[in-house]
Design a protein that fits this description.
single chain, 144 residues, alpha+beta, three-stranded antiparallel beta sheet, 2 helices, 48% helix, elongated
Length: 144
């Protein structure tokens, strides 16, 4: 990528989507949790414990994702403050070969990031190595 702010914007965009998926997974697991209704069979209680451990792990992952996202947002805010960029000023960020983003912060210092358009992939060049990062282990592309 081109530069530090571009990398931060790209990272924040990916983190927001990743966090959303982690939150959905946590809430799905929570909704499907095995309830304790007075079971006395140890095997049934073990199943409830396993279910609760999985829910706790999903909650922790979602919280870690949120913390990482907030850290990146804080760095973006410091950059915006450094350049004295006014609230609600939308910055355009191009992630080469992927998409274009708009990033801005409001008066309450909440950072927003939206994808405005997809870009054509970079042409195949034998001197360019393309590495695709998998950010969601539950959803792999068919070509992976």
């Amino acid at each position: 990528m081109d530069g530090e702010l571009t990398n931060l914007c790209h990272k924040y965009y990916n983190q927001t989507h990743w966090h959303r998926k982690l939150e959905k997974r946590f809430h799905r697991l929570l909704a499907d949790a095995l309830p304790y209704t007075g079971q006395t069979n140890v095997n049934e209680l073990d199943a409830i414990i396993r279910c609760n451990r999985e829910i706790q792990k999903a909650r922790d992952e979602a919280e870690d994702g949120k913390a990482a996202m907030q850290k990146t947002a804080g760095t973006i805010l410091r950059v915006l403050e450094y350049f004295e960029i006014q609230p609600n000023t939308k910055l355009t960020c191009e992630v080469p070969g992927e998409f274009e983003l708009q990033v801005w912060a409001d008066e309450a210092n909440a950072v927003y990031c939206t994808k405005t358009k997809d870009l054509n992939p970079l042409k195949d060049d034998p001197s360019v190595i393309v590495i695709k990062l998998v950010t969601d282990p539950w959803e792999m592309d068919e070509e992976d």
